What we know:
The chain is an all-alpha fold. It is 46% helix and 2% strand.
Amino acid sequence: MASSSTSPIVIVAVLLALFAGSSSAQLSTNYYYKTCPKVFSTVKSGVQSAISQERRMGASLLRLHFHDCFVNGCDASLLLDDTSTFTGEQTANPNRNSIRGLNVIDNIKSQVEKVCPGVVSCADILAIVARDSVVILGGPGWNVKLGRRDSRTASLSAANNNIPPPTSSLSNLISKYQAQGLSTRDMVALSGAHTIGQARCTSFRARIYNDSNIDSSFAKTRQGNCPRTSGSGDNNLAPLDLQTPNTFDNKYFQNLISQKGLLHSDQVLYNGGSTDSIVKGYVNNPKSFSSDFVAAMIKMGDISPLTGSKGEIRKVCGKVN
Length: 321
């Protein structure tokens, strides 16, 4: 039998290597406990104000965190504005004429800078804002892991390639999420974020005119505000959850069972495939959806954060220091 004795130095080296390999291990829920104790109250006040002015904004703010994390990690690269010498991610297909709430993030950042200048990253603000939006609209809460730093770069091509479009098949959704270290169950749970928010006609036109796995009266209703001709009514909106569009609940999954998913990529989750049972489970047990959603949000927030001396703490979220 081989000897089981190992040098303490070797053990320490192995542990350090493991720790370095998982930068999310450096994130912690009490990261700003001493350096910015008012960060949570300051952020929540800004989110509350924005949602009180427009309920839809909660969904838009939650989506920013998702679109940020899926492109080279949760590093606020999405927030970087284009300049004459720099192309960011905001004009990528999933974001162009689509992402909203950048001004809300800017306002919150300026308030946070007043209480603790140069301390809290824009990436962490996105993560806190996502949680607060869900809670304010009636969804579950969780302790947000913090300590991310902001990128100095962005990737238009990664934004175009990594974020699954609304035309996605089930296999495409699974593979896009898998590439980010997220499971099929995580994917279905995170898709449940479509219990709030609105989508543009251009995102669901093909579904309501071409798909067969759609309730006919639902399709007809949506066609009333979304003409078949491309270029006509492209920006007309419809709720992703026709039952409770401004409340975070499990009605989204009930809609799928009734073939009333608005996006093609919604309905593929319940279409005779491998995820049907997960959808049914969330319909029958709303608490299981809530707990899975929370776990998946925490996991998504752990995607490739910049920590330690990597990146920077931006003073203004739209530009590097």
